[in-house]
Amino acid sequence: xxxxxxxxxxxxxxxxxxxxxxxxxxxxxxxxxxxxxxxxxxxxxxxxxxxxxxxxxxxxxxxxxxxxxxxxxxxxxxxxxxxxxxxxxxxxxxxxxxxxxxxxxxxxxxxxxxxxxxxxxxxxxxxxxxxxxxxxxxxxxxxxxxxxxxxxxxxxxxxxxxxxxxxxxxxxxxxxxxxxxxxxxxxxxxxxxxxxxxxxxxxxxxxxxxxxxxxxxxxxxxxxxxxxxxxxxxxxxxxxxxxxxxxxxxxxxxxxxxxxxxxxxxxxxxxxxxxxxxxxxx
Length: 282
Hints:
Blueprint lengths: L1 H5 L2 H16 L44 H51 L2 E2 L15 E12 L8 E21 L2 H11 L4 E7 L5 E21 L4 E7 L6 E6 L6 H11 L13
Antiparallel strand pairs: 1-2, 2-3, 3-5, 4-5, 5-6, 6-7
């Protein structure tokens, strides 16, 4: 009990700490190292000297002279590109003008046929068929229409064709007869002229065609096509049964397509006195 009472815990702690440092602490190395200069690890940095300005030598000759061959070729390219651009603008302007004139053509015929479909006037014209004196007479307007067709969008989408069609009808019909091969020839002719007909055939025992009896109605189908010839910058008018049975063609300048020409053509359609041919170029 006396030992316990005399125990000094602080002295004991200090003794344990001294023993622990002696047996488990870091040992001091006895190895000797040679002396190392202070700047051995980092050698001195040399500062680069600024390069001296190059001494002027003889001046090199230019690679090409102003106004030489290359400049001439470049100038020619620019000139041709300008010419091509001007030509392209001119073509575009011409096509726009043709489109405008054909659109006016269509609108005129659309309005004209609308009025005539209501009025159904008489048409003072006779159509002679082949060498017969029995002409299609006493015809009157039955029905008409107008239409147009445009180019593909990639080509500009301009109007390239206007179509006018109408039918004139008379009071009766005519009868025609043909033998043998003449039957087919007449049938093809009537079909090409757009005439309305019926045919009664007679064949022999060998089924060969011997005779044909045709009944042809007093009805004339008129077709007029106005198409643009872009290469020649003209308008070509192609017609079937316009003034007589058969086909005809003529050419007009775009400048002639106007109110005066259209009125004269309207008079021509109705069989009235007109000056339409004065607008035709050939």
